[in-house]
Amino acid sequence: MGEEATEYFSKDFEWEEVRKQVENNSSYSHHFLPFEPSSSSSLSNDSKAWESFHNRHSTGKFFKERRYLLKEFPELLHCDEHSKVLEVGCGNGSTVLPILRGNQGVVVYACDCSSEALERAKEMISTCDKDSYNQRFHPFVCNFSQNRFPNWMICNYCRDSSMNKSIKCIAGHSENAKTDSVESSYLKQSQCCIGGVDFVTLIFTLSAVESQSMPAAIMECISTLKPGGLLLFRDYGLYDMTMLRFDPNKRVGFREYMRSDGTRSYFFSLDTVRELFLSAGFIELELEYCCVKSVNRRKGKTMHRVWVHGKFQKPI
Question: In angstroms, rounded to a whole number, what is the distance separating the alpha carbons of residues 233 and 251?
Fold first, then answer.
């Protein structure tokens, strides 16, 4: 991912071309067969699988800094000073670093289900030898597909006030708050929350979430955004070459696959992404496929990569 953004994310081919090629190729037919989940299937321990994954790739060489990020999402570069960004599923910090470097005014909160990944992220930020980076970088452990974001990020009153204009919230406190409630006691002790964030970034994160948990995970994202805030989305698209490499026995759902290490990957169509985010209450601003030819010069192979790019806004 070290290529220049203009090269890395240009429109090299049309998605419809790939769709026709794939669907007319009998060797890929197993990807389109009906999938009946096992009656004994249950939620997998994705956190444990990703913890092991980051342990194996502790050097950080597996991930490269996403230098294209600010060109694809210039809102992060031109936002107001002291804007707050929540990077969900930050991994080793490959998304966090270009944000901190590109905008000296933003504060980045970054979570991951893997404590090992967060350690790598902190190491990456520390090696930049920029005190301002460390001061504006706040990592914490959270599996957003299974748990709510912590109350210090957005308390229950701020969650309600962001969805209900009749509740007036001052410094994060509702004027209608009951003094005898558990939440009121928490707010007094912690001096409330940060009041939510201006941006949420979901960069190759949602595809790692079990499909049945995606709606709740997206609802959690919209709840922590301030009214008018943006969710910036990037993930694997339908018919990406990595999807086509999966064997039939790796399917664990419709367009959903499990790797041998226990980590999963889902491949999104535009319709699926649209339905997920609009059902959560988001407004669609941008949604499209990014289709890029990646050339492996050493092996002489051309690979067709497909991603989904999206921008969604929380209603004001």
Answer: 24
Q: Which residues contact 148 (CB under 8 A, 6 or more apart)?
A: 220, 223
The distance of Cα 16 from the centroid of its chain, to the nearest Å, equals: 26
pLDDT value of residue 15 = 95
Helix (H) or strand (E) segment spanning residue 110: strand 107-112
- The letter for the amino acid at 187 is L
CATH T-level topology, domain 67-154+194-235+246-256: Rossmann fold (3.40.50)
DSSP 8-class letter at 10: S
Domain boundaries defined on the chain: 67-154+194-235+246-256
pTM of the model: 0.83
C-beta separation of 121 from 110 below 8 A? yes
Q: How far apart are CA 283 and CA 280, in angstroms?
A: 9
Residues in the chain with pLDDT < 50? Answer: 1-8, 39-42, 50, 54, 62, 165-190
**pLDDT given at position 157:** 83
Specify the 3-state DSSP secondary structure of 49. Answer: helix
